[in-house]
Design goal:
The protein has about 325 residues and is of the alpha/beta class. It has three domains: about 150 residues, P-loop containing nucleotide triphosphate hydrolases (Rossmann fold, 3-Layer(aba) Sandwich), CATH 3.40.50.300; about 50 residues, no CATH class; about 90 residues. About 45% of the residues lie in helices and about 15% in strands. The strands form four sheets. Strands 2-5-8-1-9 form a five-stranded parallel beta sheet, with helices on both faces. Strand 10 and strand 11 form a beta hairpin. Helix 1 packs across helix 2, helix 10 packs across helix 11 and helix 11 crosses helix 14. The longest helix is centred in the C-terminal third of the chain and has 15 residues. It is elongated, with a radius of gyration of 29 Å. About 30% of the residues are buried. GO terms for molecular function: ATP binding; ATP hydrolysis activity.
């Protein structure tokens, strides 16, 4: 083990805060344990709560290079571990054709010629032709790194099995060359948006933390720390609105970074008061799907706690009454006094 990155949980929290990432005690403790125990950490939780950003910030805070494996459906192990550079191998074969001819020139028969060429095949399966992908690169790195395995739940279960050797022993086996063991153990962070259950074998090899949206005060503190330019009173009100939007059944809830973007948008527009029309004009900063947008527009007046109408969104209808002549249902608004 190398020298520990942090001497205490408080120091870990301060180091991350210095990079603009504010943590609570629970998350700071997990980061401290990651660096002290040198165990992988699996962060599960909804999208947009800062899981990926934590890995980036940890790399910056510790001065380590960040390596990222972005997972996706149908991903094969070659994109995660390593590949043989067949193009380079073929080029060398063409360049060395004359040398190969000399090697077999005096062979008494075809069998002997094949044996002579076969004895040299290890040359073409050496590290010279090995194209390392993020996992192998993290193990072979001369300098310590932070390895981010992002959105592991998007990958197939087969890729999880490929990860076990790396997560448990910090090593990668290459059949043609042997086993590579990490000289400097990487800090490994895996993230999952909980779109499917992960294998118990993978979870067993990791420290685990469920990372949810922060409390209102913590999120407000995060917005303040980003110098958005929005007055504090409006920022507090905006955070309350965003938290209300997250309680709706949206396809994608607003992330923390989108809250910050919304605050900056309102500041640029010079908004002095949060009203339903103002928020309706800018809500697309945090709501990205049409059906979600409709729900958000309908909810904004309620979330602001005011009887204000939003553009193109009707107010809550009154109780229906039945038409006497056709039996159809119609809606009447209360008469203004």
């Amino acid at each position: 083990m190398g020298a520990p990155a942090f001497d205490s949980v408080d120091e870990a929290a301060k180091a991350l805060a210095a990079q603009g990432y504010l943590t609570d005690r629970r998350l700071a403790t997990m980061v401290f344990l990651l660096t002290r125990l040198e165990r992988p950490v699996l962060l599960e939780g909804p999208a947009g709560v800062g899981k990926t950003e934590l890995a980036k910030t940890l790399a910056a805070a510790t001065g380590r290079r960040l390596l990222r494996l972005q997972c996706y459906e149908g991903q094969d192990e070659a994109s995660a571990l390593y590949e043989w550079d067949y193009g380079k191998q073929l080029l060398y074969t063409q360049l060395l054709r004359e040398k190969i001819g000399q090697l077999v020139a005096d062979a008494p028969d075809l069998h002997e010629a094949v044996d002579r060429i076969g004895a040299q095949e290890s040359v073409f399966f050496s590290e010279r032709f090995l194209a390392a992908r993020p996992l192998l690169e993290a193990v072979r790195s001369e300098e310590p790194v932070v390895l981010l395995i992002d959105e592991i739940d998007r990958a197939d279960e087969a890729l999880e099995a490929v990860l076990l050797e790396m997560l448990g022993e910090y090593q990668i086996s290459v059949p043609e060359l042997g086993t590579f063991t990490a000289r400097n153990r990487p800090y490994v962070i895996l993230t999952s948006n909980n779109t499917r259950d992960l294998a118990a074998a993978l979870k067993r090899r990791c420290l685990h933390l469920f990372l949810d949206y922060p409390s209102a005060e913590r999120e407000l503190e995060i917005v303040r720390s980003k110098d958005t330019g929005l007055p504090d009173a409006l920022a507090r009100e905006l955070v309350a609105v965003v938290r209300g939007l997250r309680e709706l059944e949206l396809r994608k809830s607003p992330s923390i970074s989108e809250t910050i973007d919304w605050a900056r948008t309102l500041a640029v527009l010079g908004v002095g008061e949060l009203t339903a029309p103002v928020l309706a004009d800018t809500v697309s900063v945090v709501v990205k799907y049409d059906k979600d947008l409709r729900k958000a527009l309908e909810a904004l007046p309620r979330l602001l706690g005011a009887e204000l109408e939003t553009p193109d969104v009707p107010t809550e209808p009154a109780s229906p009454k039945v038409s006497a002549d056709r039996g159809s249902r119609s809606f009447a608004r209360p008469k203004s006094r």
